[in-house]
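Researcher: For the annotation table, I need structure tokens for U-box domain-containing protein. Please keep the output clean. Sequence:
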Amino acid sequence: MGRDETERYITVPSLFRCPISLDVMRSPVSLCTGVTYDRASIQRWLDGGNNTCPATMQILRTKDFVPNLTLQRLIKAWSDFVGRRADGSPLRGIPTVEEVNESLRRLSLEKDDEIRLENLSRIVRFAKDSDANREFLWKRKDFAPMLVGIIAAVDGGTRATAKIKLGLLAIMILDTIIKGGKERDRERLSKLMLTDGGGCLAALLLAIRRGNLKTKIESVRVLEMISFDAKSKEIISECDGIVPELIKSISSDTDPSLMEASLSFLITISTSKRVRSKLIAEKAITKIKDILLMETTSVAVTEKSLKLLETLSSKREGRSEICGGDGGRCVEGVVRKLLKVSAAATEHAVTILWCLCYVFREDKKAEETVVRCNGLTKLLVVIQSSCSPVVRQMAKDLIKVLKVNTSASVLSAYETNTTHITPF
């Protein structure tokens, strides 16, 4: 059994846990009431202006504390016996249900953000441990509203680091618990987060703008989870700054994991016609074009880029943006991905070209670009590929149109430059 598995099943003696943090004490000290705490936790409590013992709520005659050397030796002996973490710190067991319930109680009553942060960190460890733990938390009626309240309290102008950390932890818990969740869970969370006057959306936007990579991805995924129906998608897209920031996140120099999460969110909200128009106006197609023209992108990013472009091509202004300007570079990018990435990517690409060149045929330059970029040869291969019957029929439609309507000079150039194509 590896160290990670060993740590998971350690039972920590309750005497070794700090009554405030519920973690194994590093430096146990006793107050005049006789209760022992970890030095860092009780110091924060006292520095916060409190004059009572947290466990007994007795008024302290003195705020002095005495090191509990006997307990410290016992903790050290126990830690040496069960092993230590790689960084040398004492092991932390997974909190019990009783400890989590106590942490939740303290979160609802405690005013000190540092102590609330310790309790929420404990809940994070509990939630990450198992599906059963996550289900237990989510079934509590007070849990989701509490997390939403923590997130909504994050203010972009605040200097309260603990409050911001609380908000980021709450976002992390939501991402952990709801990921792949049921529709009713998404609906419930969506209603909670979108009826708070915009505080949650502002906090998520702040996390995307200023957070680290992990925080950005978690925040984008939470946004996608609460994009539950047409109304929620429009509310989110109309929140000042969210759509431009997410479109910025699909730049070619962005981390692929963040690009994938952002594209997935944009695809989700693009089912609304109003949102599609907004995405086009915010130049999402320009960003997609840059991705398609890159030589090296992940399969998932390419597939999602083409899927989003397919959705945007249903709007007239979207087709105009795809075909217009830049010498047809976006159409060229679509043709490049034919048979080069995956079956899904090829099917999205064929559908886009079918929409541009067969269904609407608003710009002859698109047809010429397809032929110039060796698209006819690729479409002939698509007909014989394992793509769906619908997509193979689309390819046949495209070949007929391209051969009939493309100028003789372009066709001549195509026949001269035709090369053998091998599907992915």
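Researcher: And a one-line annotation?
Model: Residues 1-9, 84-90 have pLDDT under 50 and may be disordered.
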